[in-house]
Amino acid sequence: MMPMRVRVCLLLALLLTAAPAGTSVHGHQCMYVAGTVGGLAANTIGTLDWSDKEGLIFVARLSAAPDAGKHVELFAWDRVESLIYGENVNTRWTVAISTRFGAPFNTRRRHFLPVAFEDSQGHPGGAMLEFAKNDINSALVIIEARTGRKVQFESADAEAHLHG
Fold this sequence. Notes:
Blueprint: H1 4-18, E1 30-35, E2 44-49, E3 55-61, E4 69-76, E5 80-91, H2 93-98, E6 107-118, E7 124-131, H3 136-147, E8 152-153, H4 156-163
Parallel strand pairs: 5-8
Antiparallel strand pairs: 1-2, 1-7, 2-3, 3-4, 5-6, 6-7
C-alpha cells in the first residue's frame, strides 16, 4: 500500500494536468476539483463556510440565488492527515500576442490544495480544492489553525510565490 503522501502527490499531478482549461474560480469562490466526498460532482464551484467548529463546509452553488446552495462537509478538522499546496502556471500566449506592447507572455496561476483525511468510517479520503488567488493565503492560515497541521509545499517555487 502506498503512503498517504505519495497518493496525494499522485492525485495532485493527475488533477493539475487534467483540470479543464476553461474552468476557474473568481472572487471568493472555491472549486471542489475532485475527491472522495460523496454528493459533490467534480469541478463544482461554490464557497467555503469556515464557521463550523467540527469540519470544513463546502456550499455548492446550485443557482444564481444567493441563498441557493447545497451544504456538504468536506472533512472533519481533526481527521486531516496531510495538506500539500501546489500551483499550476499556464502561459497565455493569446493575450501576449494580442497586446502589441505588452509583456512577452502572460501567466495565470491556479492554486490547488489536496487534502488527505480519514472519513467518519475510518477510510482514507481526499479532496482537491482550487482557490482564487486572493483567498489562498487566508485559506491556508485558517486550515493550518483548525487542523493543527502545517501545509507542505509541492515545490520551492510554489512556496516562494506564495510567501513572496
